[in-house]
Amino acid sequence: MARTWNRDRAAKRIQTRLSEVRLQDIEIRKYVRDTNLDNLPRTVAYRVDGVHLYADIVNLDDMLNVTTVEGETCHKRTLRFLNLHYRAVHRILQEVDALFVDFHNQRLHSVVTKPYDTEDGRVHRAVAIGQLIIDVLKRTGEDADHPAAKVRVGIDSGKALAVSNGRRGHREPLFLGEPANHAAKRAGGGKATGIYLTNLARKVIGLKEADNPDVNPLSGSEIDASQKSANLSVTADKVVSEWKTDLINNPIGSFSFSGHTPPYSTLDIETLSVRNSRRQDAATVYADIDNFTNYVSANIGDDSGAKHVVRALHVIRSELDAVLHNDFSGRKVRFIGDCVHGLLVEGTAQTTDNETTISNMVLCAGGMRSSFDLAIEKLQDDGTDATDLGLAVGFEFGPMTVTRLGVKGALVRCSVSRGVIQAEREQHRCGEHETAIGQNAYDKGNEAVRGIFGSRRKRANLDYDAAVSELSSKGDKVAKAAAAFATAGLLKPASAPASPYSFQNRPTGPAKKDGFS
């Protein structure tokens, strides 16, 4: 069946989202002591003054490249490696009473809100927690195949908006704003380990500004001072001891993979586990709302502006997810801040149709850009100006995994592979109007796909109409089918009268699960 994007269909979806998050219904609340941020309604956001901590496991690439071929052995080792460390970090955050925000593959995001009345106390506490994570993960490897994690921590402080991230059974708080973004950049600023503070956070605890915060980690004496100030009630010895006991009582077990019968839209990720994981050749995509941090910063100061931020985020991300899931039968893995990470595959559970998958991914990327532009237009018509935003899309093809890791009752979605890492890198090299294709997808796609992206593997303003037109003109069968399907949809019977009463031919009962979870 042809996978297609349709402007009228997208417009109706966007209009529905707009009606669900009307400006007059959105509430901006102040975060107070022990506010519960779980399962927030889409129409509620909290302005939170906190310290953001990102911890990146910088040797994940080493795990993914332990073998020349990216086979099952490589993926099993990497997933077990992550699972071991997820469990340890989950225990740390519980012990120190920090807010868990997200664990996306190698990257942890946490927020420190206590002590409530002192910013320097929160920064000192975040530094102490960061060092505790580093110390514990040095000791939670098992063997040469599953070594200790090497960790780089980034920290910043300030106000951010906490909103709902995801839908139904997969909700968690999402923090929007400069402190989250800047902490993430410090954690992702290089491969050297240590704790890296923004100059703002350094100033809060009385440290001199660094010429380059990405190459100037805290010294041992500076970390010691923060540890003494924070006086955490838990030690690395205690966490490691409890982690080892937990592994004995609740062993991880062996990862077991099977292929999912396409399309991915039928995959229920919430049923996956170590023994029930998926693995097959597929395409993976990162679609990131560009300039969103600046948009938040410009509007977070007053409630009126903050309401527009909440509305724009939910409308745009929901529509990007709908394009992936409803129009192209892909599957969202998770929302990562203002970014959508997803998977797409065509073929069978045993054999992926490489060219069809990649061509559909190109059309899907084009559909995302067309829907993004339409959402910006409709938001503006309805009073929300988000015209400063852009969309950066990167995708790759190769062996993909999808499963859930961590502690029972708090499992997190995980899709990790060389292709997943590369797709995110492709997205990062894009500007606000650009789409980039990974080298493997470029090589395994057809000549029409390579013609669209050129030798730089990057293209500006690739919307759906441009993708269909250019691919089909070069003989791409997927694009030709999409074009024919769209044309057929415009044809009307010449003489047959409409039946006065008609009913859709579909089964009764609960509606089929859509793309949100």
Mind describing the biggest β-sheet?
A: 8 strands, mixed
Query: The CATH topology of the largest domain, please?
Result: Alpha-Beta Plaits
Oligomer status? single chain
Broad shape: globular
Cα end-to-end separation: 25 Å
Main structural class: alpha+beta
CATH class of the largest domain: Alpha Beta
| Helical fraction | 40-55%
Q: What amount of the residues lies in strands?
A: 15-25%
The CATH architecture term of the largest domain is 2-Layer Sandwich
> Which stretches are poorly predicted, pLDDT < 50 over at least 5 residues?
491-517
Number of extended strands: 15
In short:
The protein is an alpha+beta fold. The chain is 41% helix and 22% strand.
Task: Walk me through the structure.
It contains 16 helices and 15 strands. The protein has 517 residues and is α+β, with helices and mostly antiparallel strands. The protein folds into two domains: 251 residues, Nucleotide cyclase, GGDEF domain (Alpha-Beta Plaits); 211 residues, Nucleotide cyclase, GGDEF domain (Alpha-Beta Plaits, 2-Layer Sandwich). Strands 8, 9, 10, 11, 12, 13, 14 and 15 form an eight-stranded mixed sheet that branches. Strand 10 and strand 11 form a beta hairpin. Helix 10 runs antiparallel to helix 11 and helix 14 crosses helix 15.
